[in-house]
Give the backbone structure.
Amino acid sequence: MVTLDDVKGNPVLDSFIRKGNEFLGAMGYTEHSYRHINLVSSISKNILDKLDYGKREAELASIAGYLHDVGNVVSRNDHGISGAAICCPILLQMGMNPDEVAIVISAIANHEEQYGQPVNTVAAALILADKSDVHRSRVRNREFATFDIHDRVNYAVENSLVWVDEKKRTITMELTIDIEITPVMEYFEIFLTRMILCRRAAVFLNCVFELVVNGARLL
């Protein structure tokens, strides 16, 4: 079976991941490097592990999490769909079972809030993991005076985490935001559709989604 380590060792995928992050940087987007994809990979796997899904299912979530942004090498627009198209032949060539490839590429194609849907457990875990990575370390623009709202909101987030209560079946996204940099309302202004998608993903996993900001539960 193809593992996460096998995927990480594929030179074509590695090149596309590196160059995709480089191209996004040229356009002024936040960081989408190894830090981001490894974190999303780990959180995706952890969510399914905590909820007692199978080990292979959790492994597929880790693979989808690692590969979810590979489509940025083509374009930021519809990068989930292009990423799925890129990964499909490569994973098949690596020997992954076609049913497993279908699960992974559907998760990659459905992780963006503009058109994404939690079509399976792997996709649901990936959505929750990806949307939780909001943090000041992702802002590449070092000129605070030129920050747009996305830079400002990401920079205001001092800490973010996702934790799962398997007994209560809750998935909680917890953020610490410096409200002197940006008010909480600005977070919702640009991320409301993401939170709606996260709620759908949690429901797919038979869980309740909670959002906690600065200690206060907002959802």
